[in-house]
Amino acid sequence: MNEKISRVSSLADASRRTALKAGLAAGLVSGFPALARAQDNTIRIGYWPIAAGIPLYAGVNHDVFKQAGLQVEAVKFASAQQVVEAMIAGRIHGSANGTASAALGLGDIAEPGLCKIIAANPSNAKLVLDEVLVAEKSDYKTIASLKGKRIGCGPGIQNVTLAKIIFEKNGYPEVKPIEMPVGQHVAALAAGQVDAVYTLEPTGTVGRLKGLTKILETGVISKYVLGNPMAPWYGGSASLTAAFLKAQPELAKRYITAYLSAIDLVLKEPAKVRPDLVGYTAIDAKLAEAVPLPGFTTYSQFTPSDIGYFQKFFDVFTERKIFTRKVDVASMLYRA
């Protein structure tokens, strides 16, 4: 088991040439009770504390799961990679929306058939999530004008890889993105530590409300990685482990139905669920009212075109030798 966890870390670390120790994942999740020993039917879902995980937050806070007769526990992790490591270790049953899809892809390489995706977050020029920001007082007008400048991005192989592609496509092939927590992006720009950042919402909204940053361009992954500004970029996904689906199929089906009901609640009553961002994320009450909420595509809503763009996204990681083999998106989608 620990060998599989280490493979997720080593696959990502080899690409970004960092030195995460092999035993880290086991230590990170050791505080969680092993599911194999659990005597209850609690469903533990890992999440990265960002806005995209709102179906899980709303589902817990508004008793969507409880009304379905389910006991669901939201388990917080510092990164998407840690969520996947916990899934491999058997400490959690799945991931909430917002968990980096590429991290799930790495998990599938470490343990083939690790999980099934039940919903994903599409973003593009209209559904705003990904963006390039600069300081409010800067004179930069285009991404191309940032050639040779200091570029920041969020932590993890998905963020670094995508930042590289964005700036390579804008005439800056030698870019070396500086990894930093997303929560530090606005401060880093304001302090002049970096000249621009590739980041995710709510960073742009935070910077705008504080008068410290401005958006240079949104929907950058769809435009520069997928080649179409309106193409859906499925950067984050909710999933369940194959082990859970096999061991408790009826319970898993009830959870999926309830989770999709939570997505429906988010889409139909956004004002009602916005306060749920407070507590689960670093977003405060004022920001919760302004931050763009994510879009959702459930497993049954994926079209061939959607799957094609999702696959194109994964293929980027294969082409860049981050994935050691091709990861087939279609086979990772849940089928009722």
TrEMBL record:
It comes from the Bacteria. One of its GO terms (cellular component) is periplasmic space. It is found in: Periplasm. PROSITE patterns: TAT (PS51318). Pfam families: NMT1_2. The keyword Signal applies. The keyword Ribonucleoprotein does not apply. Keywords: Signal. Belongs to the bacterial solute-binding protein SsuA/TauA family. This is ABC-type transport system, periplasmic component. It comes from Thiomonas arsenitoxydans (strain DSM 22701 / CIP 110005 / 3As). The lineage of its organism: Bacteria, Pseudomonadati, Pseudomonadota, Betaproteobacteria, Burkholderiales.
